[in-house]
Write a structure and sequence with these properties.
single chain, 183 residues, mainly alpha, Four Helix Bundle (Hemerythrin (Met), subunit A), globular
Length: 183
């Protein structure tokens, strides 16, 4: 696990992985960007992945609002869910955005990513990097933010790369059973 010591490190990790994610998606044809995944997974396409990331940003913003502005303890990860029920929560997120277009998903994630970067800049070093500043952030707030940003973007990058590899395999005329990625 990464340990960030400065805002610059946290922002750089987030920005680099976010840029790579968006570049991987944007470099594909519109048709490929809108295609369903060629493997089984909860998220079925790029839209689902992008709105998943966006929703986790929004939940983070909510936790911080409750903690810092309302001076209360937020319900983490979300009311009605425990950390052991992450699969169920993520399915709820998936369902919430099924009527969202890919273009809207891109706008949402760009907006919440930028908001997250500004949020990092606005927070004190003490709040970000000293342990146990917020009960719900089990280590440091920077670690929690990393899980909602760079670390989460890395998960998304893996899915996008998996899809790209499968699309390339099909373009070459190989069958899906020849692919080590087909589940």
């Amino acid at each position: 696990m990464r340990r960030f010591k400065t805002k610059e490190e946290l922002i750089l990790a987030s920005e680099q992985t976010f840029s790579l994610l968006m570049k991987l998606i944007q470099e594909q044809s519109i048709e490929a960007q809108n295609q369903q995944f060629l493997f089984e997974y909860r998220d079925k396409n790029y839209r689902d992945v992008l709105v998943h990331l966006h929703e986790w940003h929004e939940m983070l913003f909510g936790y911080l609002d409750v903690s810092l502005n309302q001076k209360k303890e937020p319900i983490v990860p979300k009311e009605g869910y425990t950390w052991k029920e992450m699969n169920e929560l993520n399915v709820e997120i998936w369902k919430k955005y099924q009527n969202t277009s890919l273009d809207d998903a891109k706008s949402l994630i760009v907006s919440s990513h930028v908001k997250l970067l500004y949020l990092i800049l606005s927070l004190s070093d003490e709040l970000l990097f000293e342990r146990n500043q917020l009960k719900w952030a089990s280590q440091t707030l920077a670690d929690f933010i990393d899980h909602c940003a760079a670390h989460h973007y890395e998960w998304a990058i893996e899915l996008v790369q998996r899809q790209i590899k499968l699309l390339n395999t099909y373009e070459k005329g190989e069958s899906q059973t020849d692919s080590p990625f087909f589940v």
